[in-house]
From TrEMBL:
Transmembrane parts of this sequence: 46-65, 77-95, 115-138, 273-294, 306-327, 371-388
Gene that this polypeptide is encoded by: VMP1
Annotated keywords: Membrane, Transmembrane, Transmembrane helix
Protein name (Swiss-Prot/TrEMBL): Vacuole membrane protein 1 isoform X1
Keyword set includes Transmembrane: yes
Keyword Ribonucleoprotein: no
């Protein structure tokens, strides 16, 4: 891999000496122009240039649709086979018969898996910024299952309505029969599917860096450029952030599969750098994805699950509520909404939700709902801005190409 890195540095130096009308351009002037173009694109956001941003966003969608249409047109056999398979599945779904019980079971499991895998992809996919679906969806789901398990003394929640709404089974469980392992087993599918989604969402940086390395091009991607700058200034890095990134790069590069596994198994915001490193040094796909899948969908997810389950176990929750009430001055006023919320959840679990929801539940639910709305809106805005900037990049590349041909 060290030899690969040396070859990459030589290729990058050669590419910086780009010929322009028979003369070699100054690499510093090229970097300055790239910096200005990047700053110009970064100003294309909804809160600064709303009309241009929306226009570029719409045009980028049309360009992507055109590209995908062209790709599908050149793969007509695959499209026809997919349409025939889809027609068979639709016919199987709507035709009455004894097979419908299996169809409904498969449909339920498919939707469950697709829901959590989709949330995992949204959490880590490189579209501007990820949606923190663990904090908004999976974490609260595990917490609600934990609270319900201790309240019901059972994890045998009836299906349906679980997981849409958790209701205690009619037969009462034995006090103290709930264990950490039983709750882990109850939420294992949701957590593992979410982890699979996060692993899939880590593939774009890997493929981007791999394609750039094989083609010899330099993609105008901030993370990739930061990675190349880090390689150039590896020996002089002094600040903590640079050293941390360099440590991850060295770990992945030197240790290989187990280095990727170690990076994927612990929550860290720098894993995109591991994907770029693997793509840049042409690490085999299944080595990268296999280690990422095991680390995120098995090891890391069990760490996160255990943390949430322990945090929301019955005695810990009671201690937290008591601690809130002990805060001088505002403690009792803050403690009351949490007590009312927990009581409301207990009533729902025991089929008593029709008695009415206390005010505390409405207050806490309102805050959480607004938080979810804000996070989703910010994620959508980031996608719009990212796609608009992508179209602006297309325009800049076309103008630069026209200048070179003059």
């Amino acid at each position: 891999m060290a030899e690969n890195g040396k070859n990459c540095d030589q290729r990058r130096v050669a590419m910086n000496k780009e010929q322009y009308n028979g003369n070699f351009t100054d690499p510093s002037s090229m970097n300055e122009k790239k910096r200005r173009d990047r700053e110009e694109r970064q100003n294309i956001v909804l809160w600064r240039q709303p009309l241009i941003t929306l226009q570029y966003f719409s045009l980028e969608i049309l360009v992507i649709l055109k590209e995908w249409t062209s790709k599908l047109w050149h793969r007509q056999n695959l499209v026809v086979s997919s349409l025939l398979l889809l027609a068979m599945l639709i016919a199987t779904y709507y035709v009455e018969g004894a097979h419908q019980q299996y169809v409904q079971r498969i449909e339920k499991q498919f939707l469950l898996y697709a829901y959590w895998i989709g949330l995992g992809i949204l959490s880590s996919v490189g579209l501007g910024t990820g949606l923190h679906t663990f904090l908004l969806y999976l974490g609260p789901h595990i917490a609600s299952v934990t609270l319900a398990a201790y309240e019901c003394n059972s994890v045998n929640f009836p299906e349906p309505p679980y997981p849409d709404q958790i209701i205690c089974p009619d037969e009462e469980g034995i006090e103290g029969s709930i264990s950490l392992w039983s709750i882990i087993s109850k939420v294992r599918i949701e957590a593992c599917m979410w982890g699979v989604g996060t692993a899939i969402g880590e593939l774009p940086p890997y493929f981007m860096a791999r394609a750039a390395r094989l083609s010899g091009a330099e993609p105008d991607d901030e993370e990739y450029q930061e990675f190349e700058d880090m390689l150039e200034h590896a020996e002089t890095a002094q600040d903590f952030a640079s050293r941390a990134k360099l440590a991850i790069q060295n770990l992945v590069q030197k240790v290989g599969f187990f280095g990727i596994l170690a990076c994927a198994s612990i929550p860290n915001p720098l894993f995109d750098l591991a994907g770029i490193t693997c793509g840049h040094f042409l690490v085999p796909f299944w080595t990268f994805f296999g280690a990422t899948l095991i680390g995120k969908a098995i090891i890391k997810m069990h760490i996160q699950k255990i943390f949430v389950i322990i945090t929301f176990s019955k005695h810990i929750v009671e201690q937290m509520v008591a601690f809130i009430g002990a805060v001088p001055g505002i403690g009792p006023s803050l403690q009351k909404p949490f007590q009312e919320y927990l009581e409301a959840q207990r009533q729902k679990l025991h089929h008593k939700s029709e008695t009415g929801a206390p005010q505390g539940e409405n207050w806490l639910s309102w805050v959480f709902e607004k938080l979810v709305v804000v996070m989703v809106c910010y994620f959508i805005l980031s996608i719009i801005n990212s796609m608009a900037q992508s179209y602006a990049k297309r325009i800049q590349q076309r103008l630069n190409s026209e200048e070179k041909t003059k």
